[in-house]
Amino acid sequence: MNGFTILLITVVVLLAAYLIYGRYLARTWGIDPKAKTPAYEMSDGVDYVPADTNVVFGHQFASIAGAAAINGPIQASVFGWVPVLLWILLGGVFFGAVQDFAAMYASVKNKGRTIGYIIESYIGRTGKKLFLLFCWLFSILVVAAFVDMVAGTFNGFQTAADGAVSLIPANGSVATTSMLFIVEAVALGFLLRYARLNKWINTAIALVMLVAAIVLGLVFPIYISQGNWTILVFVYVLIASVTPIWALLQPRDYLNSYLLIAMIVAAVVGVLVARPTVYLPSFSGFMVNGQSLFPFLFVTIACGAVSGFHSLVSSGTASKQIKNERSMLPVSFGAMLMESMLAVLALIAVASFTSTSEAASYGYLTPTQIFAGGITNFLSAMGLPQDVVYTLINLSVSAFALTSLDSVARVGRISFQELFQDESVREEDMGPVRRMLTSKYVATILTLVLAYLLSKVGYASIWPLFGSSNQLLSALAFLACAVFLKRTRRKSFMLWVPMFTMVAVTFTALSITIWQLASGIANGTYRWVEGMTVTVDGASVLTAWGAGIQLLFAVLILALGVVVVIQGVRKLLEKQPTPTEAA
Fold this sequence. Notes:
By secondary structure, the chain is mainly alpha-helical. Helix content is about 70%, strand content about 5%.
C-alpha cells in the first residue's frame, strides 16, 4: 500500500462527508441566518465576543487539534493501518463531526451555554452538577497531560547515558517562537478589536507576525530546563484562562491556525511528492501487546475520530463567538474533518518507517517526534532543508498542544464556577463562601494546582486514563444533545448509535483501567516510594502514589458517568416528554 492512496481515499471521504452529510444535518436541524446569536445577545467583552467565521474557525481548530490527533493514531498503529484508518474516517464523520456540530448547535440555541447547562435544562439539575464535576476532573487531567508534553517539547537540554548534557536547538527555537506568538497575539488582539481593518489586511498582518516569530525563533533559541518550563507554562495558562477572550485566545488561535493549516498542507504536498511506502501490516490481530482491539483502539484514537473535549470547546468558547448561525457548520463540522485529515497524516508518517526501531535510530522516540520525522522525510525529498523543516513541524505540534491548554483551562474554570452558581441568586446576594468559589481566579488557581500535582505523574502515564475519560465525555455530550433535539422536536436518531457505542467503549475501558491500577497496587507492582514516578533502567515508572491518584480519578469519573447516563437515558426514552418549544 502507498501513502498517496490512503491520502486520496481520505480526501474523497472527508470532502463528501462535509458536502453531503454535514449539509444534511444543517437542513434537518434548521439554521436561521437571521437569528441573533448569543455572541451579540449576551455580549460581555470577556467570553461572549462576536468574531468572523475565519477567526472562530481558527480558534476551534487550534483548540481541538491538540497533539492527541497525532499521538493517538501512532500509538494505535500497533493494531495495523486498516483498523486505524477505518476508525479515523468512520469515527470522524459519523461520530466526531456530528458531536461537535450538535454541541455547538445546542449551545447557540441555548444562549451559548455549556453542555452542563443543557443537561440541567433538559435532563435535570442533579445531572448538571454531576456532569460539571466530571468536566472539571477531566479538565485537570487534560491540563496535567498537555503541560507535561509542552514542557517536554520546549526542554532545551538532553542528558546522554554518560551524563553529558547538550543543547537541543530545535526545542529552543520552538520555545522562542511560541513565546513570541503570545506577545504578538496580544498586539493582534488589540488591533482586531480597535483598528477595525479589513479582514484581508488583518490576515496579511497576522502572516507577517507569524513569519517574523518563526525567523526569530530559528535565530534566537531559548534554552530552559523542562522543570522550569512546566512552571512557566502553568503561569501562562493561569493568565490566559482569565484574560478576556479577545485579548489573547482569539488572536493567538487565529495566528496559530495559519501555522497549523500550513503544516497540514505541507504534509499533504510531501505525501504527494514522496509517495511513501506503507510498511505497517494491514492488521496485527485483536490482541496486541496485552491490549485488545476493543476497547483500546477506540480510546487510544480520540482526537481525529471523536473526542469529548471538542464538545467543551464547541459549547464552552466557540459558540459564544459565532456571528451567524451559518458559521456553525464550517466551524464545528469542518474543523473536525480537518483534524481527521491530520490524524491520517500521522498514520502515514508512522507507516513510512519499517519499524519503531528505525524511527528511534533517527532520534524519534515519542509519537510527536515520529510524526515530525516522517513529515520531514517527505518534505526533504523536495529538496527542503531537513533541520529547518523538522523544527517547523515540531513548532506546529507544540502549537497544537499550547492552544488546547488555555482553552481547556478556561473550560475547567467555567465548569468549577458553574458548580456553585445559581441563576436564581444574584451575585450580590451570594454568601462569602459561594462568592469565593464562583470567583474566576479561585476556580482557575484550584484547577491548576491540582493539575500541577498530577503532572508529576507524567504525560505517558496519564494518557490511558485521559483517553477513556475523554471518550466518556463524548458519550455524555451525545446524550445531552440527543435529549435536547428530542425535546425541541428535532430529529436525534443520528446521535443514538454513536452515543451507545461510546458508552460501551468507555465503561469497558475504565473498568479495565480501574482493575489494572487496583491490582498493581495490591500485588506490589507499584511500590509506595517517595514521589509519583521513579526511574528504572532509564525509564520513568509509575509508583503506587501516582497509581493511587489515577485510581481515585478513574473511580470518580466512572461513577459520575454512570449516574449521568442513567438519568439521561431515562429522559431520552420517555414516551411523552413535556413539550418544549423549539429554540
